[in-house]
Write a structure and sequence with these properties.
The protein is α+β, with helices and mostly antiparallel strands. The protein is 35% helix and 28% strand.
């Protein structure tokens, strides 16, 4: 459990981090996924560029009706942020459900997104929130919608040399309600299944709904079928049950020694129903 030798460099700014990047280098943030992989020698970068102490990447601020969360903000700092608690309370709640206090104090939102573990909590939370992910490389910055960022099993739309710099989350509007519920792996607290729901209300009806699911398949995803089953319908328990029934219908569920394919799909439907009911 000892990694192969590597060089360590700490960047003081995004520009410095980008200038230090090369084929043999990898970004280090909280190290809670990268270091274990290096100890198992599944990953053997020759250089680590530590971005965890770049002040601009740690900030959480408000800009043009969105919350801007720096990539090196820890799960703990997001859970504790008064701004996130007020503008998008379900994100603060979701951040507080990640791992344990040590994981939350070191792990970062950018590291979690780049790692793209199918059982991570941020993918579904950010997809449901209609967030976008800002990435920066030598050619400048671009933004990718969260729902298009996760492209497969531990795969993302990040290109070589790009660093995630921030996440932009629209603040919830007065007519929107949101919830995140998960069935956790009891030791790590990773999501065996996690469901994030954002519902827009128009009188007694649902005018728009975003349902996103973690843990069920190879990557967190927007469940368009469940969203469509809610849109235009009355906000009641029958509607929640009808939408939950079709949740996960278009994906290939994962099965492992924690939960079979059938059980994961069952959990996804139970938690979809509960999350919708929490929003209505
Ligand atoms: P690192 O480990 O430093 O990096 C991970 C990967 O991302 C590396 O490839 C690195 O090069 C890359 N990277 C890091 N930052 C950036 C960036 N800004 N731009 C581009 N690439 C980048 N997660 C959950 O969601 N839910 C849980 O319940 C949960 N429980 C956990 C329990 C334990 C015991 C542990 C060890 C981890 C758990 N995690 C959980 C994962 C944890 O929350 C971290 O978010 C995750 O490990 C990665 O974040 P990090 O900052 O540690 O990234």
């Amino acid at each position: 459990m000892i990694p192969s030798s590597f060089e360590y460099q700490r960047a003081a700014s995004v520009q410095e981090a980008l200038s230090l990047m090369s084929e043999d280098a990898q970004v280090l943030a909280g190290g809670h996924s990268l270091i274990p992989a290096m100890k198992l020698r599944l990953n053997q970068p020759e250089r680590l560029i530590d971005i965890s102490r770049i002040p601009a990447l740690q900030q959480i601020s408000e800009k043009n009706g969105s919350i801007v969360i720096g990539a090196a903000a820890t799960h703990g700092s997001i859970a504790d942020s008064a701004l996130v608690q007020k503008a998008c309370p379900f994100l603060a709640t979701g951040a507080g459900m990640i791992g344990d206090i040590q994981v939350r104090n070191k792990g970062t939102i950018g590291g979690s997104l780049a790692h793209a573990d199918p059982a991570a909590d941020w993918p579904g939370l950010l997809i449901a929130a209609a967030a976008s992910i800002e990435v920066t490389g030598s050619k400048g910055s671009r933004t990718i919608e969260a729902e298009n960022f996760f492209t497969g099993f531990y795969e993302t739309a990040l290109e070589d040399g790009e660093i995630i710099t921030a996440v932009h989350v629209p603040q919830l509007r007065a007519n929107q309600k949101a919830a995140y519920l998960k069935f956790s792996q009891p030791a790590s607290r990773f999501a065996i299944v996690g469901v994030a729901v954002v519902i827009s209300h128009d009188g007694g009806k649902i005018s728009d709904a975003r349902v996103a699911i973690n843990g069920l398949s190879e990557a967190g995803f927007l469940d368009k079928g469940a969203g469509a089953a809610l849109t235009g319908q009355p906000a009641n328990a029958d509607t929640a049950a009808a939408a939950a029934k079709v949740a996960g219908a278009d994906c290939t569920p994962l099965g492992d020694h924690y939960a079979s394919e059938e059980y994961r799909l069952h959990l996804a439907r139970v938690y979809t129903k509960r999350a919708i009911i929490a929003c209505i």
